[in-house]
Amino acid sequence: MLRTTIVALAESGTVKVILNFADVTEIDDDGLGALVFCYARIVNRGGALKLLNLRPLHMNLMVLTKLNTVFEVFADEQDAVDSFFPDRAVRHYDVLEFVEEQEKSTGLDPPK
Prior knowledge:
Structural class: mainly alpha
Radius of gyration: 15 Å
CATH class: Alpha Beta
CATH topology: Transcription Regulator spoIIAA
Largest sheet: 3 strands, parallel
Order of helices and strands: HEHEHEHH
Strand content: 5-15%
Number of strands: 3
Number of helices: 5
CATH superfamily: STAS domain
Strand order of the largest sheet: 1-2-3
Distance between the termini: 42 Å
């Protein structure tokens, strides 16, 4: 359903897309594949696809697969919307800050 919707949006010229993960509990291989497909479809039409409200587990997956270097991730909806407008100040989700918080909460030492 996600792929079909993104294709329809891209074909209609809607190329500024934010996917809100607030109610998403897990992402499997098919889900990651769908995200990459959607990203490519939107970018090929000259647009951008951004992610919102990823859970810590999702962020771990993004870091593990290095997709955090592909997708812009936001914790605040207004920041995600503002990111489409160059004259607005935007706070990007800081992946390094996320990893450091995870290490502190699990008691793991950072890699050396």
